[in-house]
Amino acid sequence: MIRRAILKEKRLDRRVRKTRHQLRQGLAKLMLQKSVKEITVKELTELVDINRGTFYLHYKDIYDMAEKIQLDIIEEFQQIFAAKPDYAVAESPFSLFVEIYTYLAENADLCAAFLGKNGDMAFVEKLKSMVQGRCLHSLKAKYENADPDQFEWFSAFVVGGHLGLIQKWLDTGMREDPEEMATLAVQMVMSGVRFLESSKDTCFSQKNAL
Questions:
Q1: Span 107-157, pLDDT tens digits
Q2: Which of 10, 47, 72, 152 is 20 to 30 A off residue 34, Cα-Cα?
Q3: Is-contact 199 205, C-beta < 8 A?
Q4: Residue 128 near residue 163 (C-beta atoms within 8 A)
Q5: Domains of the chain
Q6: How far apart are CA 104 and CA 102, in angstroms?
């Protein structure tokens, strides 16, 4: 009896995952055309051929669904960063970027929708803030003698520029593979690292010395 119950639960879990996947893919498709506030439950369920009753077993409404997806994306990014020690993020970010771009490629429809023109800017800012905070922590551990003000500028440059790189990649159909994008991202970061390493000669240091 216990084994049957476990098998039944596994089948149920598969059905739940399949249903949520269908709904999420449908929402991503609609978000390429309109914002979340313009999408109705009726429109979404008709698109993916699921009845509205089933939708409400999983989500309260479209906003609740969008919020849960956003939280999932942020959690995935947190886990990717958490798996890397601080020194690895600052000294050798290539593998980190490969993981980020691999995740984006595997979840391209949702990421393109939520980071695109019809996405939620509050979500984008929350994601940027999380990534920037981790970058600052890693950089401060490596460049202890750099001007603290420059950490803020550098991390804003890296995170903002990298987000733009991601959005461009998603918008243009991801023609480059994750390794190619990681290489490009590292080149961008290293140009900024040289800025930090020469921080004593920058205008900020000169200004603070006055």
A1: 999 999 999 999 999 999 999 998 888 877 777 777 776 676 777 777 788
A2: 72
A3: yes
A4: yes
A5: 2-199 (1.10.357.10)
A6: 5
